[in-house]
Each structure stands twice: as structure tokens, then as C-alpha cells.
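S1.2 Input.
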Amino acid sequence: MKRSVGTLVSILLVEILLAGGVIAFNVICIPRVLHLMNHVNRLEYKAAGLSSVAGNGWLEYMMFYPLSEFIFRNTGNYCDAPDFNGTSAPDGKNMTISYLISNYGLNNATDTKKIIYKELEYALGRCDPDVIGEGQPLAPLHMAVLRGDAPMIVSLLIHHNARTDSRITRKGKEIDGMTPLELARLLADRVKGAGRKQAYQDIIRLLENAGNDKTSDKPHRNTANA
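S1.3 Output.
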């Protein structure tokens, strides 16, 4: 049975209204931190966050990956990733890059790592690759070295001009004053397991190759929250 043009137009308008309602609900009613979690976190972590905020899992059905990606990238201050602390989700100043590096190491799922890597690559085009996130003791490159399980993250940071000559400021700690390369050499001597040792050797090689190209007068892009 053929439908009239008027009926088809009516159906299309209803679908447009429903889609607009979903988008409006996501933008207005769902906290930005949940879109970040939906976008880059492992599924079980995302579900726990949704449950703690919404009281049940119904909210998850209103969230769609492409929409969460768009909302996180285009609302709020992109370089300031929000962090759910149990009761609220304040923006953490300059936390997006640190957040992504930390979550890359926490995830074992290959598909999730690919998503986080892609978002980190995007973030490094908008945010300062050397800035230390609020409440964090280390710059992103030092963080990536400390994790030690992702030479490709170290390589990505170097590609985006992260400083290899920056030094840790941790008075009274063994690592105080260390460059990323010095930290990598220290940890390479202490880690257990052939896989981790090889990862640190790869990181050391990357840093040695990049080392002399990063000088103290390297210009920084003032792109925070661009």
C-alpha cells in the first residue's frame, strides 16, 4: 500500500523532531563528564559512572558514541577534562591530555585503546602538549614514560613537539630533576618482565633520537581550550 507524500513528510518531520529532542537532551541534561566517559572509557568504567550518576542504566540508552564525541569536543573547555568525584564533575584545568594518557594505560581492550589514541591525537592538535594538568605532578611526556606500556604514546607526544628536556619538580623525591629520558633509563633497570623491559628500550630509543631537537626556546602553541 503506497503512502501519500503528506504521510511521508509527516513521518520525516516526526523523526527530525525526535532526533532534535535526543540531541537537545544530551546537550542540556547529560553532564559533560558522562560524554567524556562514554567517548573514551572502557565499558565497565563507563557503566559504573552512569550508574552512580543516574541511579540506573537508563541514561546509557540515550547516549550515542558519535554524539558524545561531538559534545565533548564542542562544549565547555575542551582542554579541561571534567572529572567525576562522586558528587560532582568539575573541569580539571588542562586535564584532557593527562586524562587520556592515564586511561590508555588502564584499558586492555584493543578497540578502546584505538579510540583513546585517536582522541589523544586530536587533543594534541588543540592543547599544549607540555602543560601539567591540575593536581598532577608530572607533564604528559613524563606520565607516558612512567606508564611504560605505550611507546606509541611517547612517540605521538614527541611528534607533537612535547619537550624532551623538561624536568620533574618533586623536591625530596628520587625522580626530582629528571628528564623523560633519565626517568625511562631509571625505570628500565627496575621493571620486571621481558615485555616491559622491551617497551622501555623502545621508549629510550625514541627519546634519544628526539632529544637534541627540543630546546628550551621551543615556541609553544597557545592553544589551550581552543
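S1.4 Remarks. The two ends are 53 Å apart (CA to CA).
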